[in-house]
Each structure stands twice: as C-alpha cells, then as structure tokens.
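Troubleshooting: if your tokenizer reports a length mismatch, compare against these two reference records.
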Amino acid sequence: MKTSVVEFKEQLKTALIDLAWRQWTQLGVGGLEPGKVNYILDPEALLVFSAYIGRFDQRLFDEIIDWLHINARFINIQRLRVMSKKAEFNNQAVLGLMAAYLKKGDASLKWRKIATDFKPSNTPEPQPLFRLSNGQPMPVVGTKDETALQYGFKRNIYRQTDNSSEFPLDTAATMLLQLRGIFGVNARSEATLILLTQDTCTIQNIADASGFSWRSIQDVLFEMNRSNLIDSTGAKRGRYYYLRDRKASLNLFCPSLLEEVPFPNWIGFYNAMIMILNTIEAPNIEKLSEQGVKSVLQELFNNKIGSTLLNSGITLFKFVNIDNAGQLPFLIKNLFET
C-alpha cells in the first residue's frame, strides 16, 4: 500500500461509516443522499454491521434506532440472530441495547426477547458506547442513559429523533422488505428473493442466503412448486428451482426493479471489511515495517477473506488482494456512486 497505515485506517473507517449511512438512507433513515442503487440490501446484515461501525458515529446509531421504531416489524429476528452469530466481531450486547430501546415502545415479543437474550448475564463495568475516529472512547458528560448502563455501556440519554420514515417502495434496495410486506416475515420472502435474483438455485443456496434451515426452505419450495410461479428440475438434493417467467414475476412483486440487481452476501462482505479494519487497528501494527504490515494483511487475505470477497457477489471486490488493498476506501465509495 502506498499510503501509511494510519492514513489507510482513517480512510477505510470513514468509507465504512459513509457506506452505512448511504445504505441506511436507502432504507429510509434521514440523512445523506442515498446515491444510485446497485444492490439489494440485507437489513439484518446491515443492522449487525451497524452495531459495530455505528459506534464511531452516534448520530448514525441513534437514527438507526429511530428507523427501527417505525420499521421493526419487517426485520426477521430469527435471521438477525443467525447473522449476529456469523459476524466476526462481538456485537450482541449492542444489538440487545438497540432492542431494549424498542422495548419501551410497541416492539413485538421477539424484540423483547432479543433485548433479554443479548443482555450480559453479569453487567460488566460500563464502557463508553461511542468512540472517536481515532478509536479512543468518547467522553460522556452529564446524566448517563440507564438502559445503556444495563448492557455495560455509558452514553448520554437516548432521545428518539423522528427523522426516519417507512422504507421506500420505489427502490430495488428495499426489495427484501417489500417482499416481506407481501408474504410476511418468513422463509417464503427470502426464497422468493433468491428466485428473483438467480437463474436457478438449490435449497441449500436459499438456506445459506436466508439463515433458515434446509428443511424450512424445502417445505416452502415444495408448496411454491405447486403453483404456476416456479418450476424445478432434478431430484432431491440435486434439484434446481427457477421462476417460469422472471421478468413477469419482477414486474408483479417489484415493479421498481426493471433490470437485474444482485443480492450479495453482505454479512461476508461486512465481516471482511471489519477484519481488515481490526487488523490495522492492532496496537503494534504501526511499529511494523511496510513489508511487515503487508505480511500481516497477506495472511489475512490468504486464510480468511480472499475467498469471501471473491464470492461476495459484489463485482468491485471480486479480485481485491494484498496488492490493490489500498484501493478499498475508493471501491467502497463506488458502491453507491457508480
């Protein structure tokens, strides 16, 4: 990398915070202009990612909670649990805190259970919830938020912003949420999304992308296969499913989606970005030579994230490697500007 570790770290962190903002505004959070939509977003993966990256931006963090006050019923709690377990970074206590703020309103029983299940069993010594861009804890002045203290965090009192809105219906970014409006928050919505975005798919393809069990997806596809919507070929685990008329189905379920838009493996992509960020934020990394830093990142790419980026479904990142990793902040920016 031609830039220093310090410069790269700040550029990457800024790019990831900006990406979270852009993606949430595509879902209805008040804030920045969302930019052009190139991908269908994954609300559960984005929420898990934001429980980490949002700690560097208090305004973003609180706007997400504001959005949840309006749209929480369209979040798949089972899938949120699965995504939080797939995350390479610990964030369940933060997700529990977000759910606890909803608990004070009209949150469902499932959200109340998240608030309970993700609450630390033994309340640790409270640590600042938010961090400055340099990674140092953000000072908390004045009265501390009682709910946050229960989860081991210190912050100023949370106040609902009322800046967000219901998720928009005229964008491909909210396609999964729109399908949940039709089919409900269940495996049928995820199955339909994968069928709409792929020529053919197996039960395992949908199970991997959705977080539902193989058996649950099998049951859904068996029922859907008894309609005029989808067809299949093959036998048992080798069976492939496909829409009989994808164009007509897109026009029926998501008329805003006039051309094919991919649904990437967002949790894999977010994992890769946070692993890179954590690696270059390690206490002694700045003491290493340029070759030393390159060796550390090379090991990360070889053992953990190279294949993840290749298979993420995001074209810009398919061939990112140690030689062009310095372009990551620029590539992240291009996710919503190209």
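Reference record two:
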Amino acid sequence: MILDLTEHAAADLQDISAYTLDTWGAEQEEKYLKNLYRKFSEILESPDRWRFREDLFPRCQVAFEGRHLILFQVNDDVLLIVRILHGAMNLGSHVPIEFQEE
C-alpha cells in the first residue's frame, strides 16, 4: 500500500508545522511531525483497525494523533490522507467538497 495526501492534507501539515514551530519551538515541531508520520505508518500497516466515520464522507476512517484527527480513505492499494484537523474543529465543515459528493 502506498501513502498519498490530498492538497488539503499537505496544507494541514504545513499549518501544523508552522503553528507548532512558532508556539513551541523547533524541537517540538520535529517531534510532532515525526509522530504524525509514525501514525501514517501504523495506518498503512493495518488500515482495518481504525474507526469508520461515514457520516463525514464515504469510506472515511479516522485516527487520532496528539490533538489532531487524521481523516483518511483506503482505495485499493492507496492510503489517502484527506485532512489532518484539530480535534476541536467542526470536522464536517472541513471536508473537501469533492469528498462530500462521492
């Protein structure tokens, strides 16, 4: 299985990186990003173990890392990270339109 990120997820990672760096410093920013990528690896190893949230979009699954929720789909041999959102956010309002229409 291969890992892919939507443009939204890539932008989320950039935002998380910038905020963490500005707020907590370089060491914490590096640690948090490593933890996120470690979680991506865990999902790749056993995607079936994660909870489904089809109320958000079809085939949506979720995994927590720190204070963030990783929204993803498994499509054949591709793990698609759709969004990486803070747990306090209204998740439904941040689902990309192309996933709402599936």
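Descriptive notes for reference record two:
- Residues 2-100 form a domain with the YaeB-like fold fold (CATH 3.30.2310.20).
- Residues 54 and 60 are 5 Å apart (CA to CA).
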